[in-house]
Amino acid sequence: MRKRLTFHISDTTKFKEQLLFWSKKFQCVCILDSHEVNLKENSKMEYNTYELVAGIDALQIIEPEQNCFDNLKAEIDFAKDWWFGYLGYDLKNEIENLSSDNQDGLDLPQMNFFRPRWVFLLDVDTLLVHYFEEEFSEEDIYNLVMNIQNISVPKEKEVTVAEIKSRISREEYLKAIRQLKEHIRIGDIYEVNFCQEFYAEDTYIRPRQMFRKLMKVSPTPYSCFYRMGEKYLLSASPERYLKKVGRKIISQPIKGTAKRGANEEEDKLIKENLFSDAKERAENIMIVDLVRNDLSRTAAKDSVIVEELCGIYTFPQVHQMISTIVSELKEDVHFVEAIRQTFPMGSMTGAPKVRAMKLIEKYESTKRGLFSGAVGYITPDGDFDFNVVIRSIQYNAMNHYLSFMVGGAITMQSNPEKEYEECMLKAKAIVKVLKE
Fold it and tell me: Which intervals hold domain Anthranilate synthase component I N-terminal (predicted)?
């Protein structure tokens, strides 16, 4: 049975670094950090329960090769414990009649969940540690937290990343966009999220050091460090996929981005322009409609509500247009079904979703792996919170392959050259973290 101990943490920034370093000795680690990004300024960020949620070390691992959601459901119902894990993008093939045959240098399982030995929850300056009383005494946990706080995190040597290559050329990218726009013109789809891969081979990185660098450049409310053996995800995600609180399901898709201004006055103007931008609003509303449809499959009658449409949220580097859609889960529906029926998230696929995913497979050159998937946790009460894996580095330390993907929403109004330039800007931001 799990027990809980409470501690006061005077320097939470330092403690997070110490916890990350201490986790180095374990094969299964998931650390989700909100960085207190706009928790007070932005009304809908109230849905962020903790500043940090971490699961460390695995008592049990779920990594099914088929019937993933059913296997996950069975293990959750049996253990009724904390679970941390991810949903890979290619779970789409289990949900719909789809396939994935593109290049894959990462070789990630399509699903990975683990039941942690320790759960750490940080709320402002209060740390809660969940542990098994059969395994540890209160004194053991007290000593554990004191030991973590006494860690002196060493400065690691810089590691040079090998040459970063693009999986497709500029000409191939432009051709794919033109072909996708033709699909839109004839009414095959309305919108599609098209991505390209950047990768490095024979590359040796220090994942924790790289994650710290990424967080300094881009602290975001749904960032994540995930380790499963020798495979890593370093994510600076600004987007929530799905959260459950009681019977309430919350989705917060992002569509629409603008750079921060040089000063407060410029910032205000940029936010006003983003809010009134017809193209950005159309993209956001299209995904809101898709999410409403997905949520309705598991929702109680008349419970799907758009709480906020095209809200403008400010982050350290960008402004984002975020909508909040909620529903009430039907009494006779298992919460895992709310995940199955909405995955993958519409903001990373397009509309109609299934047709968009078929075209993604046709025109992209790389398996997305964890990109466009989700990482999060499930509580013993059946509540959960998952992010959208974007702005992320994936790394396989076994074959020394590093990968990240960038892309954007393609609509009839999209200019292929401008879309390519936007991709290069997004890629440049990650390359800067890798190279400097």
Answer: 83-123
Amino acid making up residue 8: H
Asked about 239 being catalytic, the answer comes back as yes
CA distance 421 to 407: 10
Pairwise CA distance, residues 242 & 302, whole Å: 19
With beta carbons less than 8 A apart as the criterion, state whether 225 and 234 touch: yes
Residue 429 has a pLDDT of: 87
Compute the Cα dihedral for 352, 325, 347, 345 and give only its sign: negative
DSSP code string of 70-125 = HHHHHHHHHH-S-EEEEE-GGGHHHHSS----SB-SS---SEEEEEEEEEEEEETT
The rounded distance, in Å, linking the Cα atoms of 287 and 162 is 37
Sign of CA dihedral 292, 297, 298, 302: positive
Q: Name the residue among 340, 337, 348, 364 with its Cα closest to residue 408.
A: 348
- Residue 255 is a catalytic residue: yes
Prior bond to 344 cis, omega within 30? yes
45 pLDDT tier (thresholds 50, 70, 90): low
Closest of 418, 420, 353 to residue 192, by C-alpha:
353
CA 151/CA 136 separation, integer angstroms: 21
- Quick check: 378 and 209 in contact, CB under 8 A? no
Per-residue pLDDT tens digits for 183-231: 999 999 999 999 999 999 999 999 999 999 999 988 889 999 999 999 9
* Structural domains of the chain ordered from first start: 2-164+197-239+364-394 (3.60.120.10), 245-342 (no CATH)
- CA-to-CA separations, 50 to 20, 284, 326, in angstroms, rounded: 17, 27, 20
The answer to whether the Cα torsion of 206, 207, 208, 213 is positive or negative is positive
Mean pLDDT on 121-131: 96
pLDDT recorded at residue 101: 92
For residue 140, give both structure tokens: 């053991």
pLDDT tens for each residue of 305-338: 999 999 999 887 788 999 999 999 999 999 999 9
Question: Considering 191, 239, 328, 361, which one is annotated as catalytic?
Answer: 239
pTM metric for this prediction: 0.95
Please report the beta strands in 276-426, taking only residues with DSSP state E, as ranges in sequence order: 305-314, 318-328, 350-351, 374-378, 384-387, 392-396, 401-410
Phi and psi, residue 305, nearest 5°: -135, 140
Catalytic residue (one of 16, 181, 231, 255): 255
Cα 280 from Cα 81, distance rounded (Å):
41
